[in-house]
Amino acid sequence: MIPFNKPYISGNELKYIEDVISSRELAGDGKYTKKCEEFFEQRFGFKKAILTTSCTDALEMAVLLMDIQPGDEVIIPSFTYVSTANVFAMHGARIVFADCKSHFPILDEESIEELITSKTKAIVPVHYSGVSCNMERIMEIALRHNIFVLEDAAMAINCHFKSSKNEVHNLGGIGHFSAFSFHDTKNVSSGEGGLLVINDDRFIERAQTIRDKGTNKKSFLNGESDKYEWVDLGSSFSPNEITAAFLYAQLEALDVIQEKRMEIWNEYQFQFNDIQYLGFELPLIPSYSESNGHVFFIICDNKNRREKLIQFMRKNGVKLSFHYNSLHKTKYYLKENKLENIPNSEKFSDCLVRFPIYPELKKEDVRYIVSIVREFFSN
Amino acid sequence: MIPFNKPYISGNELKYIEDVISSRELAGDGKYTKKCEEFFEQRFGFKKAILTTSCTDALEMAVLLMDIQPGDEVIIPSFTYVSTANVFAMHGARIVFADCKSHFPILDEESIEELITSKTKAIVPVHYSGVSCNMERIMEIALRHNIFVLEDAAMAINCHFKSSKNEVHNLGGIGHFSAFSFHDTKNVSSGEGGLLVINDDRFIERAQTIRDKGTNKKSFLNGESDKYEWVDLGSSFSPNEITAAFLYAQLEALDVIQEKRMEIWNEYQFQFNDIQYLGFELPLIPSYSESNGHVFFIICDNKNRREKLIQFMRKNGVKLSFHYNSLHKTKYYLKENKLENIPNSEKFSDCLVRFPIYPELKKEDVRYIVSIVREFFSN
């Protein structure tokens, strides 16, 4: 059986964890946390990187920093993971769902403006599979309307956006905030884990307070405050140092991971190009972006065909996966909202199917997988 | 220098983490998470134990389960860590501060009833240093007024409450909910980490949903739901398996840890009894409880004396610590509330001082430490 996912191990994880254990400095925000945060700040030019226990928690920190209140509105794509919406719903915000593009499941930037009202507080472009939303247009709209941009970069490590002036910007470094995930399935992982990026100076100091459970711990330890006390809202967002040590071993191997994943991704692309006439759609990546080898997917012509493909592949020893149920059609959202028609999002929910991709997968595995797909579509 | 704290290492931490790494099952809610949860359910008879990334997160889950809304009131002691209050403040609740007993910094059960209004939704007894609040009286009051009880058992692993009928109840297993901490400083630690306990059947199913980011993941995987979707509020509360593996190695050593800590604690108690006439107060533990060796503290007669003691001890190579700033006197609370007088809480904030206590500390260290304290108070 070829599994859908197999997390990468660089080989240094245990060594760094051993180092943490011998130091007995196990709590959060220690040596390895700083190493991870500096890695992102230096390599991608992010203003401030803050390690969190999950991408959901990073999004939550951004929601607190934006001071989202009941009645505020936020525009997010319906085709995304539950957490993108739930962090806002937790604070009583009204979720306004946008559609994605017809040929790729990223926010359709031309659908945003008509959704903006005087209550709109934030737009959340989700860089699905590491492919960039049109950040130039989105930032232009957001700044004109005085709205925050929170990049959901859960899948978008090591990705970029190329502007109309051919300037290359790292994803996660463009919006006011961005959030990355190090969940099990991601290119770089600590099982569970996340990162908040802050690109707007105004929010850096408060972010530290919110991360420190709403206390002035940092300024107290620096000697800038005379007592350690409750100063703000906040929660416990720091992972322990064991998690940070594990993650750091992965970050050091980022180039190796990316090279291997792109080899697999390119092989899929090459093999699938050959059989595209058989009746499915290959995603079209906009010219301002590129894949980071996180996801390889195709789009079947209907839900039933996708289900049959998944079953056929499983019978032939290959595990596929799919997601997301469009959020505007979920039980929770429909409790208090009426059913809308968000067609591209619904198409991807019904028809997108993901193929195994991870560094240990071999090119011959890819060729085998695609040969089975060919067999399926040929019958 | 004798440090204030030194986390215990059982010796199996790395072995179990190695096991997780070779299994490649790194995400949350896996084998070791279940082992940890079962440990608490079996050893302490808790109905349902759910591992979280922190005690703060466990408290947050309880707040979601209790459906705390803006305007709801919650009674908590002012002498507690910021998170006890902040998880409620995050949901717009009004925090009503109660005082603690005069001889021990646990909630004064006789002060509760006059604070209850028609809006009171929850009482949070904090078992400071593992010493139980009067849970018999608190549960009686709460049930009569139809109010939830959330035990803040952050420090209270392996503790109990003895009722007036001589029945022994494990702390954390009495209220509707309870929250434990595995922070760095705790008896059993994973650097950062926590546990939510649910003792009321009505909340178990929803807790799983909330922990799974507000999705029906569990019932989907069980085949009980036909699609994986957004069904409720929720967040990412699960720690990764590396953290759970580390914690499990500690839990297996619980009896060893407790024995060593109690030896140290008893030695402090014995040595300090001898010099109590010199002008400080030893805490008086109520007869329905016992220490779990988590904290040893004395109470100075004023803040200035405490500060001088800390400095004197440091000069002699011993690190002491103190906490908490009473929450009713903090910057955040005073922004929207006027200053109240909560005298016992303020006394402990000003005068309580904690001594080093951890399994590696030796009895002769304790004797040395107390000899320096004697020297300080003799001058």
Describe the structure.
The structure is a homodimer of 379-residue chains. Chain A is an alpha/beta fold and 379 residues long. Chain A folds into 2 domains: 13-252, 3-Layer(aba) Sandwich (Aspartate Aminotransferase, domain 2); 254-378, Aspartate Aminotransferase, domain 1 (Alpha-Beta Complex), CATH 3.90.1150.10. Helix content of chain A is 38%, strand content 13%. Chain A contains 13 helices and 11 strands. Chain A has helices spanning 13-23, 31-44, 55-65, 82-89, 135-145, 204-211, 217-221, 241-252, 254-274, 303-315, 331-334, 343-351, 363-378, and strands at residues 48-52, 73-77, 94-98, 120-123, 148-152, 160-162, 168-170, 177-181, 194-198, 296-299, 352-355. In chain A, the strands form 3 sheets. Chain A has a 7-stranded mixed beta sheet with strand order 1-9-8-5-4-2-3, sandwiched between helices. Chain A has a two-stranded antiparallel sheet with strand order 6-7. In chain A, strands 10-11 form a two-stranded antiparallel ribbon. In chain A, a hairpin with a 5-residue loop joins strand 6 and strand 7 (168-170). The longest helix of chain A is centred in the C-terminal third of the chain and has 21 residues, at 254-274. The two termini of chain A are 23 Å apart. At the A-B interface, helix 1, helix 3, helix 4, helix 8 and helix 11 of A face helix 1, helix 3, helix 4, helix 8 and helix 11 of B.
